[in-house]
Amino acid sequence: MTDSEPSPSAAPFRPRTVLVLGGGGMKGTAHVGVWKALEEAGVIPDAIIGCSIGALIATAISGGMGWRELGDMARALRRQDIVSINRRAVFMGGVREESVFDGPHYRRFLADRLPLRSFADAQIPVRVNAVSLVGCGEVWFGTGVRDDIDPVDAVYASCAIPIYFPPLKRDGDVLVDGGVLNNVPVDQALAWGAERIIAVDVGAEILPPAAGLFDRGMIAIHDRVLTMNIAQQRVRAMEAWKGHPVTHIRPRIGHLGTWDFERTQYFLEEGYRATKEALARGPETGGAGI
């Protein structure tokens, strides 16, 4: 059985409308505003797909959290809730450490916040992606695929940005952030059988480098590489979208930082605004404007 094939115990399921929530760090709190606008419009997807921060929000929604609860959680979020420095990484020889942040600290945050304890209990079918450093490809967890994993572990893996968080090691595999290969996985929605896709892209935009950026060390350079990677993924996503009805939601937040904890309310409002605008515009079929 491949990572994308249904598990033997899963009943066949083909969702008509699939919501795809992409990765983007703290900018992904805009997904909460998206969910509010969709609820108000009476648009409830048959399934949700999430990558990275989108995996967190997707799994929370599938576990029963509404936009009010999600909004309260997002506004209360502080850097120290997620980020704890791996002190061994800043000592001599720290280059051999897996990450600059502490993984168990972030996993405890997820365990405390996520309501879903088993993918079998999802109120809305959900799938999240990670990337295998062993198999060098995407791995999918959730409804109808690999559903035997704790959703907390699946979300952690999907959010494990290389260098920042250590990979999830499970069953002989080493898993990192799904956005490394597929930040807005519209192709998975199509493979699942979606007839209508609502895709939310909160990834970074390529801007001229700030003064002194390349003098700030390996993390600044790593972030620049990831930004270029995400931009190239957008180009490939355009090809996947051609001929399919996609409601593309692109909040005006791509110029802001991955770790920006000071603009949460703006992210929420911009997600809401962009969704209202996209719903009024209607689906696109050529991938234009991604």
UniProtKB/TrEMBL annotation:
Motif (GXSXG): 50-54
ATP-binding in keyword set: no
This protein's record includes keyword Membrane: no
UniProt keywords, alphabetically: Hydrolase, Lipid degradation, Lipid metabolism
Cited InterPro entries: Acyl_Trfase/lysoPLipase, NTE, PNPLA_dom
Gene Ontology biological process terms, A to Z: lipid catabolic process
Coiled coil: none
Motif (DGA/G): 177-179
Gene3D superfamilies, A to Z: Cytosolic phospholipase A2 catalytic domain
Active site: 52, 177
Residue numbers covered by motif GXGXXG: 23-28
Domain PNPLA: 19-190
Protein name as annotated: NTE family protein
Organism of provenance: Longimicrobium terrae
Phylogenetic placement of the source organism: Bacteria, Pseudomonadati, Gemmatimonadota, Longimicrobiia, Longimicrobiales
